[in-house]
Structures
1.
Amino acid sequence: MKFDNLEVGGRKFKSLYGEIKCPEYMLRMIMINIPGHILPFSLIEKGTDTKLIYETDTKTPIKDYLLENGADEQWMKNFLLSLDGIIALCGEYLINQDYIIVSTESIFYSADTGEIVFVFNPFEINDFNLSCRKILVDIAGNYFLDHAVSGEIFRERFLREVGNKNFNIRNVLANWEALSYKEKSDAINSDFTNSKKTAKTTDLFKELFGKLNKKEDQNTTMAITNTSGHMCLTGICSINTKIPIKEEGITVGRTMLQKDYGLYNSGIGKTHARVYKQDGSIFATDLGSRNGTYLNGEQLEKRVPVKMERGDILAFSDEEFILC
């Protein structure tokens, strides 16, 4: 199966061809009815292979649209409603939804009408639910959204919901009010602490943490007790380095560490990870860093928030901090 871009007479098309896996009558039924949410196509038969030509000259790939215009909460909700709509459409036409391609390259958007259309692929079956999760993480996690505080809070909650092992588009829509930023919003009860603990390392540092907090006259300068009432990340190699976790959260990166704390590590990205508070708990999210973020020795999945506990070890590349 091949997927190509074409331009003929100034018009743009996509072609998809190979050996049809789904019933051919379904292709003809869709062509005759031209259902919403599916990109119009023409059927061309050549020997054993069949080609579908999709009309794309009046549509824009959502990747191009988002790079130019970004997205906000309402756009994300409309996109989810379109995903839900394609599921309903597949049920109506008795189509296996896994024949729908879900990627930023094959979903098209009309800025004039706000219509979102998908490519129906009769040559190959994909995992629709997994593809939906991936594209939602791509759109929200790659910061197509605005950078306002409310946008960041929404994004973090949204990614947690998408990261849920029981992810379902309709569940996300049903929980939308809880995802939207509100000063006194109810806690989201989903637990996304998927990383495993390395118990020996954690216990060792918790024991060290406890000893350093004891008031010992002979070593009072070594205390790392947090007297400010705020949680902070304390450097393991340099316990005098404390990074307070502000109410609005912090974005940890190479420039921030060097400028504010005198630490330089070329392995840390400019915007490496985010640590923030949510409903009284602390969460850490890797922002797509090249060298990874680690919680108690386990690498975090990119752009998926993970809950932390006091005494946990958080490493940005190989720069380690303890949460205290």
Note: Residues 199-323 form a domain with the Tumour Suppressor Smad4 fold (CATH 2.60.200.20).
2.
Amino acid sequence: MNRRAGFLIACVLLAGASGWAQMLDSWGPGAEVQVRLQLEYGGTLPPMAKVEIFKGDMPFGADTANTRGEVTFRGLARGSYTIRVNIPGYRLEEAPVEITTGGDTRFIPIVLRPDPNAAAVDLGPSLDDPLVSAGVLGAPDKARKELMKAHESRINGDCKKAIEQAKKAIEVAPGLVMAYQEMGMCQTSMGAIEDAQKSFETAILKDPKFLYAYLNLARVLARKKDWQGAAKTLAVASKQHPQRGEPYFEMAKLQLATNDPLRAEATAKMALERDCSRIPEMAFLMANIHAKNGNKEQAIASLEEFVRKNPDTPQSARAQYVIEQLKAPTKPPKNQ
């Protein structure tokens, strides 16, 4: 009998059949869990969709879904796991996973459902906005190509690569403010808030009229609970662009977040008096404000109007979902 065979027999005698099975499983190939995200009402998945896996109460791993909504976790030992998906604008979703065999592959579909109480989802600037396109078109060809690569990388969830590409664009064209914008948005997503603040502040220094840098700087300051700093930033943005609704939209969100729904309603109406064509979340913000002020019927009416004007869109489907939730009868307290 060789030394290894003797060792294995000893393991069986000491650990017993159950313990030996676990030992073999730990030596064998780990299991694989493939997660696939999809929206309840269809449409494009939100960028930077983070998926986490826990073993018991302990975080075991995390990854960002690709453009198809897929994430794969490999090398998992036997045991009980939980998949968790927490995306702004959607309800927290969890799915239990039981791994019983090494080398096993499990497929876990997770449906994302809109959260009717969620704050408006922050979206990046559109490249066809005149405030953006003029600066991009005026940049050197090499810088423009790196910027577009950075934009695509961020949309596809690869922020590390996006930041590298944005820095390359800045090396060629230090005044290309959209490169700082892309970098700052990625830094925000990655939780590097101080770096993001510096990126947006630099963009403003390079171009004091670049609206999106003000909007994102205000969001970063609000995340740091610097409400006064965020409000001042939005005030400057509204002076730079008095006909754009975005500064007032963001201010209304800020007022709602600080429990001042009446002022938020007045500010949101000021946004509606201006150009809101690039704010797809305006209807949801107004509905949220009306609901917080106890005007459920107004909330429903504003969303129904949005559905009429924007039929057959993912936003319309989300609005219809919120309408159904608002119309649902309120359950009486259990003690009644």
Note: The chain has three domains: 3-112, 122-241, 244-331.
3.
Amino acid sequence: MGYDAVLPGEADFFGGILLLRGHEKKGVPFVCLNLVSAQTGNPVFSPYRRFSRGGVTVLVTGLASGSVFPKGELAGLGLKVLPPGEALPSLFARQEGEADVVIVLSHLGFSEDRELARRAGRPLIILGAHSRMPVWMTEAGSDSILSIPQDRGRVLQEISVGSVAGAPGKGPAGFADGSLAAQYEAKRSELSARGKEMDRRERDLAERTLTAYGRLLAVPEGKRLITPRAQPLDETVPDDPEMVRMHGEYRKTLGQLARTRRPGPAGPTEYRGHAACGRCHPENHAGWRKEPHAVAHGTLAGQGDGANPDCLPCHVTGYGKGGYRTGGPKGLEGVGCEACHGPGKGHPGKKMTIPGEPACRSCHEGLGPFPFAEKRRLLGCVRAKDG
């Protein structure tokens, strides 16, 4: 697909290190600076990749976090994660760390990314992860750029980089982006329209993003070193025919497996199913039956993804938590009461959870056609007396 560098994440290690090694031999350009062998201390993957684009030397490195791995998994793989604050300065101290632009692919998380920018000692472009809210900001006092694109590949964050005009031996940046002002106005309008319904953290990030765009706008276009542009990968971007074919084969294979594989033993489960809730809460159950949540799995199946493990957690009840299983017993299709209120075992003696915003945000944080802007309606189904 033309990638210059790829930082493997926690899910990439599920198949084992040998599988990743096989992908690497086939040309996947993995890069990670601080994931090393526990026995030898040598990096598992290439610690960095360097290349030139338009006369600009770019160095890309990656930083993993031990916290994204399940407990004991690193030791089981014979690996360890070095502290990022030690690994990155060590790279810069060596001659091979020299470059016009340094890009850090990060699995550290938003707070650690900011700390990294403060302590790096040189400007960085940090591309982060593990946040459902898109972030674009300049880190005060560091001249670094921190960008966390919207997740699940739904937005392409384009960052144009060039040399400052008038620098010795180098021409104008030439990356003036006419849409930057439009993006600034769009973000300001969003903050004005939705600011009151945002929580404190979301509003803080939106304000920082607006400030970052404002700082860039203050630099004359001919001297702008870094220019961002967010390109939503929506229906206006045509699908690649080969990817459509591959995705179709993937869906077909998942469907065949769901029809032909026998589910394993059910084992004990704390989920009781939608009908059990309806016996004591008939009015709530009747109202739920009219909601899109009730037919969420049917909607998914109608699109050919009824067995897709990437989609099921938000379209059924208790998937991966001892509830819904592909090919298993019926009664947990759709997003039912137990998806938000918790498993029903022990109820009515056990008080059920009264869900707040996190329960809705887990699936409605800008994903799909039902964003969290409808939070008041979504939370309207909850009444304390029904607990």
Note: The first strand starts at residue 35 and ends at 37.
